Amino acid sequence: MNALAVGRSALVVLALLVGAGAGLGAVVFRWLIKTFTQLFSGHADYSAAGHTANPHVPGLGMWFVLFTPVLAGLIYGPLVYKFAPEARGHGVPEVMYAVARKGGRIAPQVAVVKSLASALCIGSGGSVGREGPIVQIGSALGSTFGRVVGAGEDRMRLLVACGAAGGIAATFNAPLAGVFFAMELILTSFAAEGFGMIVLSSVVASVIGRAAFGNEPFLVLPAFHTSSPGQLPLFAVLGVVAGAAGVAFSKILYLIEDACDWAWRWPEWARPAVGGLLLGGLLLLLPEMYGVGYPVLGDAVAGKYAIGFLLVLLVGKIAATSLTIGIGGSGGVFAPSLFMGAMLGSAFGQIAHHVFGASAGGIGSYALIGMGAVFAGAARAPITAVVIMFELTGEYSIIVSLMAAIVLATLTSRLLTGDTIYTLKLRRRGIDLSAPAPASPFTGITVGAVMEPVPAPLPANISLSQAADSLAVSRHGALPVTDTDGSFLGVASARAVAEVLAEGGREGEPVREVLTVPKPVHADSELATALEALVTADPSGLPVVDEAGTGLSGWITHQAVLAAAHSRPVQTV
Question: How far, in Å, are 236, 449, 517 from residue 466 at the CA level?
């Protein structure tokens, strides 16, 4: 019980640290985007600047957008190729895979490479969002923290989810959305302990984000209000249309990526730069596609665009985002799906006004609901979609219409396809997260089948200097320690004894002062379940205790586990 309480206390501290790290990471990431956008375009957000020239290179006029994706691609292409290939693309599927199949292990360099690559891509005109990168950045931080403290797989996964939630909460000033995004998409679980830790991480990250960016949501929208029950059928129809649009976006994204894969025959590191010419040409035709495009989204919600232009922006965003990902760019698909939803919803609202007049309600309401519904259709995350739209507006009167549209969008998506925009990327690699995990090579093997004899134990009252002599000649570098009645107390490692002796003046202390008590492993335990305890233990191995937990049955080492896996016959299908 005491060990369990300590573990939970440590987990709380880790969740807070991961949240703080993700919050700071979001601050740095948004600063990088702002800096690179200003550097490459000369504007804070070029999507709202029309065909204005870059003041840094006025002689190029509006033609500068042809070259900004190329220049950025020459930087982040080699960076991603050499240091973190998993940083390419929109990021969330890689985190989902790491949690479901890799025990939450994500390479620490991903956080740095993803930050730079995505900021360069978005700042130079890449038509992608920042949620995918910040999820991958925060998750990599959580995984790194877990590795440093030797967390087991379950807690490693939880720390990864804490990092994802913290990143979303800080960068979008949406703490609730961060929590539900992490639990609905990353963990796919709403366990009570996990929920509490993720909330802590999200809150800390949100506080840091608000200190840096203020208390405003990431997108300021006009006031919304729906009061007529007659509008509900219109919102329901919009939900179905938006769900189909979300599925279409998913399919087109990977069709264009396939086309880019088919056409490219040269080194991967050069692909973003060469493909950047195509992206630059699209930006030259439609500068509203530059970067994330929140100002354009806001104008659409405010009803400033005609129906025809809204549809052009919708198709343009699908093409620009798909092309950015297809040429090897790095960025998320959440913000583009909101952009598409705003265009679709605003166009739908204007059509409804032409048909039904003022009784159709405000156009902005349709744009807002379209945003949530397209995201729900693409990602099939209805809870996250509802929560983030509600956090954006704070308007409760729209919640019934919003929920109805998002649920219908999700159902439409499920009828049209078995995959989401995230899982489809993995399925194309032959990975099905809905299928059972591949069988462990240790399935059916017990600890007793591979354990070694117990090494000679140390008496609990032996001095540290005497223990050092025994540990120096021990094959394991660690020895069990027993009490005077022979009951097992813990393990003394050569490293722990050496660290204490290095302080000086403590040679006469009993060895019981440096004991560690590992997680109990029994001879009849499945080897697969014992691996978690072994991975987090001292490199020398673990004692195998009897059912009472007071006697020793054997000793299990990494070498013994590897030998068991190596000697087992390979099963063929």
Answer: 78, 33, 21
Lookup result for tokens 């259709």: 377
Are 383 and 180 contacting, i.e. CB atoms less than 8 angstroms apart? yes
Q: Angle at the Cα of 292 (from 290 to 296), degrees rounded to 5?
A: 75
Report if pTM > 0.90: no
Question: Kindly report the CA angle at 248 between 293 and 278, in degrees rounded to 5?
Answer: 55
> Which whole number is the average pLDDT over 184-198?
86
Sign of CA dihedral 57, 58, 64, 68: positive
- 219 φ, ψ to 5°? -140, 120
Distance of CA 28 to CAs 198, 406, 549, Å?
21, 33, 49
What spatial distance separates the first Cα and last Cα of the chain, rounded to whole Å? 45
The 10 Å Cβ neighbour count of residue 569 is 5
Residue in 182, 165, 174 with CA at minimum distance from that of residue 218: 174
Q: Where does residue 191 fall: left (phi above 0), alpha (psi -120 to 50 degrees), or beta otherwise?
A: beta
Q: Which residue has the tokens 């405010």?
A: 302
The predicted structure's pLDDT at residue 454:
86
For residue 492, which phi and psi values (nearest 5 degrees)? -110, 125
Alpha-carbon distance 63 to 533, whole Å?
A: 60
Q: Is 438 helix (H, G, I), strand (E, B) or coil?
A: coil
- What distance in Å separates the CA atoms of residue 534 and residue 462, rounded to the nearest whole number? 26
**C-beta neighbour count of 535 within 10 angstroms:** 15
Q: Which amino acid is located at 24 in the chain?
A: L
The three-state DSSP-derived secondary structure of 155-184 is HHHHHHHHHHHHHHHHHHCCHHHHHHHHHH
Residue at 224: amino acid letter = F
Query: Cα–Cα distance between 266 and 244 in angstroms, integer?
Result: 36
Give tens-digit pLDDT for 90-144.
Answer: 889 999 999 988 888 898 899 999 999 999 999 999 999 998 999 999 999 999 9
Token code pair at residue 192: 């009570």
Please state, in angstroms and rounded to a whole number, the distance separating the CA atoms of residues 132 and 21: 17
Residues contacting 238, CB < 8 A, separation 6+: 344, 345, 348, 366, 369, 370, 373, 405
What is the per-residue pLDDT for 3? 37
pLDDT tens figures, 270-312? 999 999 999 999 999 999 999 999 999 999 998 999 999 999 9
Contacts of 516 (CB under 8 A, 6+ apart): 490, 491, 492, 493, 496, 538
Instruction: Give the pair of three-digit tokens for residue 365.
Output: 């309401």
Side chain identity at residue 112, one-letter code: V
